[in-house]
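Aim 2, interim progress: modelling of the guanosine-5'-diphosphate-bound target.
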Amino acid sequence: MTVPSPGAATDAFTKPLANGHSPLSQRLQIINDEKKFTQELTSQIERWGLRDVGFNYNLVAVFGSQSTGKSTLLNRLFGTTFDVMDETKRQQTTKGIWMCRGNDTNIMVMDVEGTDGRERGEDQDFERKSALFSLASSEVLIINLWEHQVGLYQGANMGLLKTVFEVNLGLFGKKAQDGTSGRTLLLFVIRDHIGTTPLANLQATLTADMHKIWESLSKPAELQDRQLSDYFDLTFTALPHKVLAADQFEKETRNLRERFVDKENPGFVFKPLYHKRIPADGVAFYMENIWEQVQNNKDLDLPTQQELLAQFRCDEISAVALTEFNEQAKPQKRPIEAGKVVEGLGSMMRSWRKTALERYDRDASRYHQGVYKRKRADLIASLDATLSPLFLGQLKNLHKACLGAFKKDILDGLKGEEYNFADVVSKAQGKCESKFTEGAKESVVDDSEEGKAEWNWEEELLLLKEEVRSVADQCRKDETKKMVNAIERNFKKQISEPVELALNKGSPSMWDSILRAFRETLDKAESAYLTKATSFNCTEEENAQSLAVLRRRAWQALRAKIDEQTVDSVFVGRLRTHFEERFRYDEQGVPRVWKPDDDIDGAFKKAKEQTLELIPLYSKIVPVDSSLAYTLPPDAASSSDSGSLTEEPFDFEDSLTVFSETKALDLAAKFRKDADLAYVEAKRSTVSSVAQ
Ligand code: GDP
Ligand code: MG
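Predicted structure of the complex, ligand included:
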């Protein structure tokens, strides 16, 4: 028999073996005659169906001199397929350590094949190393010996036991204090028990020998007072001669098997305290490491070995979970980067993360707890490092989408004629914020206390709120401007007629009526503004500003109307009319026909003076009733439409002057020309009437 080639091992997974064994009964040489550890153990454990059983398996190894029927016994007990020496050929079995899965049980059985080195004084090294190796992993060590070897204190077996105890101290010495791990059951199987010496006697002899050996050990100083029983439990059994008492032998081996497979059996050997707590999927790695340490003659520090194993396995398990997780997460990366809001992203992310952690926990939680927890935190960090950009991207996209929807809602809301601006805005605002909050909350992966900082969306909401507010503010400003413009247009329409009427008449109280009309119209405009503005949620300040603008514009509109009504041509025409009404018509409004005796000069002078009096009246806006005088409030004078302060303030005082003095003189001169013409004409008409 040789080590199965990798090809054969793979075939065995699917096909029955050539020798008729199923994969379950396939054996594996885990350490070959060159003391090399196999690379096949993990896959073999998987083929045995034990990979995922966690701690739900047992490990037993055997010790004893060469050709004492060890392999025969194991095959009987566990239905294994270890090589047995062929009686007829007396052929050596293949050296090394072999492993099989027990038939119908989750028991891994190790068989050690050495040479009869002890007798020949060679290869005690392998014996020692396999003892170390077996103790580090087995729960039960079967010590196999012939009845006639019992009591032979100097015999080969005793040397072996001394070795076992010594290495055991090295292995578990420090750890044994808590009594939890490192405890091993030594099951002595006495072969070819004839029966003349009862088992009890043999047991007593062996126990005494054990203690003698224990006493003789060279123990490290700190372990001087340790007892054999601090590390080992001893149990004994005897088997009859396989050939001479074949039936008895079969019966006793069947009974012994029960002690391995039946938990209810009072002699059940696999007590939980013997278990080395290596999860099945880590057994191969662990054993390989132990073997390496043993080979290099290093001190075997089992707790460190367990941590190393845990690190290795937890990393592996974590990597598998992470790979699967990344495959799930990958397709969502692109849409997020492209600015899309991915529907249900949060629940997806939570489920990927949960699956990954469950996967990790299922396999890794059996390993060294400190390592398991540390690696778990690492895994969470890795998972979240992938999820966090998705989360933040989703928030950004959500922000953009909600702001867009908000703007659109406002535009739609302001489309019709009848709308309440404040309602439109606050409705859109509420919708925007709740849509964001809902989406953001959905995207949170971990809302535990620790996760709070990582999955924070409140800040993004604050940013969004700020932007929403500034958009709303801009809209309100635009709306207010629109409204002020409309009110101004309306104002202009209303002020036009009273101004025209009053200026046409040119009565001394014309400014009184103009200012009165102005006041009334402005009051109406102001209250129109205030009525509407309440629905805008404008601030006091904004209202004051709008009113200032409105007042200034109203005044300017009035002034424009006055200017329009007093341009030179119109005004000079008005003076002429005024003059002619007095000069060319009498008091009854009948056109005058000048006669030579008429006092043309007097009439002319009077009419001219009366007309010239109008110029100062029009020159300045001064009411007769001083209580009607209007003063533009200073904030109105300095208000500007653009809100910029660089604009020159409006000079109200200046605007009260309609004509400057020079202008007045100029107008008077123009009028005089017209009047002089009328005078000359009147003179001529008398001359011509005399001439007739
Ligand atoms: P190992 O080297 O300890 O594994 O021993 P093997 O199982 O290969 O057996 C060695 C030889 O001992 C074989 O020829 C077996 O037939 C024989 N043998 C096995 N069991 C017994 C037993 O209980 N009593 C006797 N006398 N011989 C046995
Ligand atoms: Mg053997």
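The pocket of guanosine-5'-diphosphate (ligand 1) is lined by residues 66-72, 84-85, 87, 93, 191-192, 241-243 (CB under 6 Å). The longest strand covers residues 184-191.
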